[in-house]
Design a protein that fits this description.
By secondary structure, the protein is of the alpha+beta class. The protein has twelve helices and 15 strands. Helix 2 packs across helix 4, helix 6 packs across helix 8 and helix 6 packs across helix 12.
């Protein structure tokens, strides 16, 4: 097989520049099956998937002006899962393959470096890997529908396309906004990642969101914002010393612009409230979150955000700067302003669906994003088979935020079952 290479899409450019031992931006998607995973069959499934999904089987390479992705010839083997999820993916590892395939008991997990794709792209890979594994293991016939593809087809041009280049507005949208409150805590010395997952009935969560006239994402953003504001007050910040509470929401642009790429196609918006203007009720916060999310994610405003990012990428002076200098510049800008507009990410995968033939064999799907350079806490959500899995990750010892969030859901009438890796 001949090697191929891909320019990093617009969302991917920043990640190689800001890799750190305490943050390298890897996320995880996983499927828990009804029976233990057979690693030999899993390796066969990986091997058979590789020709159909070239943009996932890549390694990170360094050019004179930019990093880029290059397809790998040797198929990666599955590994037994590590002691904890999202173990640091070193630069050496990224030079070999930017995706990990893991198994443990009944679970198949895929961990992906964010320059390769976003959560939706990772889920597409996981679904197809799971489908192929089940077909090989049990002889189950799984039709190509939804995200499941025919692995005998050749990759389609739209799947490998950088869609950011074709959906920008004629004018970029300003990024100016107030700096938000910053969560903090005692970092774990060994970079251990605590994950507390709240499992809630999807119908009950949806019911409570609809009572407030908002989506599940906006409702969860409101609950998170309430918890963060309590953290801020507990620190003694009052009056003019308080800062805005804002939740960063990654938005899947595939639905917005009707494009079906397997690469990154997500942009984030920040929604929230300013405590300096006064106190807010739960209903008011829900209303704010719902209206802001709806207004900020209309196609015109998202196209303006895309244009702002793409215009900078196309800047001739920036393009001609050698990579080492470019990396230092991007790193400096990011450390100064890259994460100070929000408090944490809330990334909602939505309802995960699979063909009917797979449903009896798959118990659950989960989605976990990593902590970031200055976001010690993050939250990711996925719903499958009537249950919503709210995964809160942290790289600090203090668990107060999770306690506030899940106890608040219970207060609001949403029962929560808790699981933890620590």
């Amino acid at each position: 097989m001949k090697k191929q290479w891909y320019r990093l899409d617009n969302a991917a450019l920043i990640f190689p520049a800001i890799i750190r031992k305490n943050w390298n931006n890897v996320f995880r998607v996983s499927a828990t099956l009804k029976e233990p995973v057979d690693p030999e069959v899993l390796d066969r499934a990986i091997e058979e998937l590789k020709p159909r999904f070239p943009t996932y089987f890549v390694r990170l390479r360094k050019g004179f002006f930019w990093y880029y992705l290059e397809t790998i010839l040797k198929t990666p083997k599955s590994q037994k899962d590590f002691a904890y999820p999202l173990t640091h993916m070193t630069r050496r590892e990224l030079k070999t393959c930017c995706v990990r395939f893991l198994y443990y008991n009944n679970r198949i997990a895929v961990e992906v470096f964010h320059s390769v794709t976003d959560g939706t792209g990772g889920l597409i890979l996981l679904k197809n890997l799971t489908a192929r594994y089940l077909a090989l293991k049990y002889g189950t016939e799984i039709p190509p529908e939804g995200h499941i593809v025919d692995i005998n087809d050749k990759p389609k041009a739209e799947e490998t396309r950088d869609c950011f280049q074709s959906c920008g507005a004629s004018r970029g949208l300003s990024r100016a906004e107030d700096t938000a409150y910053r969560l903090s805590g005692t970092p774990e010395a060994d970079r251990f990642r605590h994950i507390i997952t709240g499992i809630v009935p999807a119908d009950k969560l949806k019911e409570k969101a609809h009572e407030q006239g908002v989506t599940v994402t906006a409702f969860l953003a409101a609950v998170l914002a309430e918890a963060i504001e309590k953290r801020q007050l507990a620190e003694g910040r009052t009056g003019k010393r308080t800062k805005p509470v804002k939740i960063t929401i990654p938005v899947n642009l595939r639905k917005t612009f009707g494009m079906n790429t397997f690469r990154n196609f997500t942009l984030a918006v920040n929604i929230g409230f300013d405590p300096r203007l006064g106190e807010y009720t739960h209903e008011q916060i829900c209303s704010l979150m719902g209206h802001q999310l709806a207004a900020e994610t209309i196609p015109q405003r998202m196209a303006g955000r895309v244009a702002k990012n793409v215009d900078q990428q196309r800047n001739l002076l920036l393009r001609l700067i050698p990579l080492p200098i470019k990396t230092l510049c991007m790193r400096s800008v990011y450390m100064l302003s890259g994460e100070n507009k929000g408090c944490l990410n809330l990334s909602n995968m939505g309802v995960v669906t699979v063909p009917e033939a797979m449903q009896p064999l798959v118990d659950r799907f989960e989605f976990v994003i990593g902590v970031q350079y200055t976001y010690p806490n993050n939250c990711s959500v996925a719903t499958y088979n009537g249950k919503t899995y709210i995964s809160m990750i942290r790289g600090i010892r203090e668990s107060e935020l999770e306690r506030l969030v899940f106890s608040r859901l219970v207060e609001l009438g949403v029962p929560v079952e808790i699981e933890s890796n620590s």
